[in-house]
C-alpha cells in the first residue's frame, strides 16, 4: 500500500511514524513533510491548498490511501475532490468538516440535537458583541467563528479582557474573516480532556483520552497557544465517563451529521469539560489533535493504516483497534517569544541523543534543514514524547530527553501532566 500524508507539522510526523510501522504500507510520502520525517517518508514539495494538484499527484503515483492532517484542506473539501476521482482518503467531507470550520454551525447543531455544551450567543457585529459582554460580565469565552489555527479562542477572566478580544477579532480582524462573526459563551468550570474517535459514519471507536496544555506557562498561566504538551491516558476520563461521552456526545453528533446530510468519517475530536460526572463539549475538531496525537498514537497497538482504510470504506469494527496499557507524555519545545513573535533559523542540537533514548521519539513540528543542520522554523518546534509504564515515569523520561536538546531561546512548560500527577497522589 502506498500512502500519502498531507501536512508538515508534529501531528503529521506522528501519523507518518505510526503508519511506517504498518506491515501493509510499502511506501510513504509526506506533502510537504518536514526534516523529522525524511527517514520514514519521501517528502514532496506540494502546495496543500492546491486540492486538484494534490489529487493529480496522488493519481499519478497510484496512492492507495491519503491521510489529511490539518483542518484547512478538510474544510476546503479535499476529501470531496479525492473521492470524486475514486481515490481512498481518510477524513470528513467539507460539509461534515464544518463542525470545526464554523463554531456557529457546531454550536447550533449541538443545540438542535441536545448535545451538552455551554450556553452561547452568536454575534454578527462588534457593537452587539460588546453589549452582550457588558450585560453578562466575566469570566466569559470569546470564539472566532472560522478557522484560526487553534488560536481563535479567548477565555476572558475580566470584562476588559473580553472586550479587548472582541476588538482584536471583530475590529482589527486579527484572524481575518474568521472573526467576522463570533460565538460568546458561558465560562465552564472543570477539567478539560480530549477524546478522539475513529468513525466510518456508523461505527464509533473511541481512542484513549488525552489532556492538552494550552496555556504557555506553568500552572496554566499566560496566553493560549496551539498546545504546549499533552499526556495520555487522562485519569479524569474514567471508564464510566468515557462510556457516557460516547453515548451523550459522540453517538448523537455522528447521527446528527448523518441526518443533516453530512455523513462523517475519519477522526472526530471532542474537546470536553468534565466536572464531577458531568461532560460538556467545548469544541469539535474534524481531525487529529496536535499535540494529543503525539501521545495517543504511540499507545495504539493496532495497524493504523488498516483502521484508516476501514474508516474510509465504511467497514470499521471495534476489534480493529487495540491499545497499550502504558502511558505517554509529550513536552513541546517552543521558540523564544512564542506565542507572540519569534525568530526562525536557529540551529538545534541534541536531537540524535534524545532520539537514541529507549521509548522516546522527538516529533518535528516547526523545523527545516539547511546544509545538513536542523533549524527552527516555527513557534512550536519539537514535541518530545516518551512512553513508559505510568505517567510519572513517562514524564520523567520526556524531560530527560528535553534536557539533551538545545536551541537559543527554547522554552517549554516544566509541569506537563501536573493534573494527572495530582490525581495520582490524591489516591
UniProtKB/TrEMBL annotation:
Pathway terms, separated by semicolons: Purine metabolism; IMP biosynthesis via de novo pathway; N(1)-(5-phospho-D-ribosyl)glycinamide from 5-phospho-alpha-D-ribose 1-diphosphate: step 2/2
Record-linked Pfam families: GARS_A, GARS_C, GARS_N
Cofactor: Mn(2+); Mg(2+)
GO molecular function, one term: ATP binding
Key words, A-Z: ATP-binding, Ligase, Manganese, Metal-binding, Nucleotide-binding, Purine biosynthesis
Ranges of residues in domain ATP-grasp: 107-313
EC number(s) given by UniProt: 6.3.4.13
Family: Belongs to the GARS family.
The name this protein goes by in its record: Phosphoribosylamine--glycine ligase
Species: Acidaminococcus fermentans (strain ATCC 25085 / DSM 20731 / CCUG 9996 / CIP 106432 / VR4)
Biological classification of the source: Bacteria, Bacillati, Bacillota, Negativicutes, Acidaminococcales
Gene: purD
